[in-house]
Amino acid sequence: MTFALLAGEMATFGVLVLPLPFQIRRKLFHFLSESPIVGKIAYALKIAFIFVAILFVDAVQRMFRVTAEVELAKTGNQGIQDVRTETNFAARKFYAQRNTYLTGFCLFLSLVLTRTFYIIQDLIHTQEEYAKLKKATAEKSRSTLAAGDQTKQIEELKRKLAEAEKSERDFATLKKQANQQAAEYDRLAEQYNKETGKVSNKRTD
């Protein structure tokens, strides 16, 4: 069971650290964090790791006990009688150390795996917030540019309107001056006709 857990942790860790595209990684982590099936599996794994922790404590105690027995057999009065006994002690010591390392690495990798999962999940959340902020900033920039274009158009229309009003005032002034000149010309023509004794019903514009 411990070896199967260790192999599963190594495979899971390899999947987590793969350079996957952002969209695929986001969907994967959303599935792992929101799926009820994954939640049940995680709960069962927590119980399994409790048993692995118990096995780790037992393996450490057995390793120290076997090591003490080997040292006692080597330095004690009884000593090691033959090669078979020495091989038996070495095998027991090896198995105790193997169980210690196996359960210890399994627990250690579970902590690393959990921390890595939450770090990557925070990274994905940060990237999503950054994408939203970047999109909002781009929309705001476009709105600002559009408002600037509208302001320029309004200023251009005001300028054209002012020019049109100025042209209209100039035309009115010229028209008034033309009327005044025409009236003065008519007055001078009538006065000339009276002085010369000529009578004319026509008025020259």
From TrEMBL:
Residues 2-132 form the BAP29/BAP31 transmembrane domain. Residues 152-198 form the Bap31/Bap29 cytoplasmic coiled-coil domain. Pfam families: Bap31, Bap31_Bap29_C. Residues 185-205 are annotated as: Disordered. InterPro entries: BAP29/BAP31, BAP29/BAP31_N, Bap31/Bap29_C. Gene3D superfamilies: 1.20.5.110. The keyword Endoplasmic reticulum applies. GO terms for cellular component: endoplasmic reticulum membrane. Keywords: Coiled coil, Endoplasmic reticulum, ER-Golgi transport, Membrane, Protein transport, Transmembrane, Transmembrane helix, Transport. The chain crosses the membrane at residues 41-60, 101-120. GO terms for biological process: endoplasmic reticulum to Golgi vesicle-mediated transport; intracellular protein transport; protein localization to endoplasmic reticulum exit site. It comes from the Eukaryota. It is a multi-pass membrane protein. It is found in: Endoplasmic reticulum membrane. Its main location: endoplasmic reticulum. May play a role in anterograde transport of membrane proteins from the endoplasmic reticulum to the Golgi. Belongs to the BCAP29/BCAP31 family. This is Endoplasmic reticulum transmembrane protein.
